[in-house]
Amino acid sequence: MDDRPPICPICERPIPPGARQSLHHLTPKLKGGKGGPVVRVHQICHNEIHATLTEAELARDYNTPEALRAHPRLAKFIAWVRKRPPDFHSKTPKKLRKRK
Predict the structure, then answer these.
(1) Which key words are in the record (predicted)?
(2) pLDDT, tens digit, 9 for 90 and up, residues 44-68
(3) Which long-range contacts link 25-32 to residues 24+ away (Cβ below 8 Å)?
(4) Among 32, 33, 68, 82, which residue carries the largest CB count within 10 Å?
(5) What are the Cα distances from residue 5, in Å, to 36, 46, 58?
């Protein structure tokens, strides 16, 4: 039996028991992702994804962990959060994306 904690596919740090975490729908439920693939992520990573990208952007261009990691703003966040302990959490600023 493997007792290692799951790895967050966004920041690639372990998600230890007791860490704030959630499931991220790779395609948002409102854009046809209900019942689709989900990934377990740190809550801080999940908050940053949704503060950065719209549901439409997530469905259209950022529906894989690889695509999310490649987004310039998320890449900057990932570089920062990787220096924190695996159970680190802080508030995410309100929506930072630009409305079109």
Answers:
(1) Endonuclease, Hydrolase, Nuclease
(2) 999 999 999 999 999 999 999 999 9
(3) 26/63, 26/64, 26/65, 27/58, 27/59, 27/63, 28/55, 28/58, 28/59, 30/55, 31/55, 31/56, 31/58, 31/59, 32/59
(4) 68
(5) 23, 18, 26
Per-residue confidence (pLDDT) for residue 99, from 0 to 100: 47
- Helix residue ranges per DSSP H, the chain: 43-52, 55-61, 65-70, 72-81
Rounded CA separation 74/33 (Å): 21
- The whole-model pTM stands at 0.89
Extents of the domains making up the chain: 21-81
Rounded-to-integer distance, Cα 53 and Cα 86, Å:
24
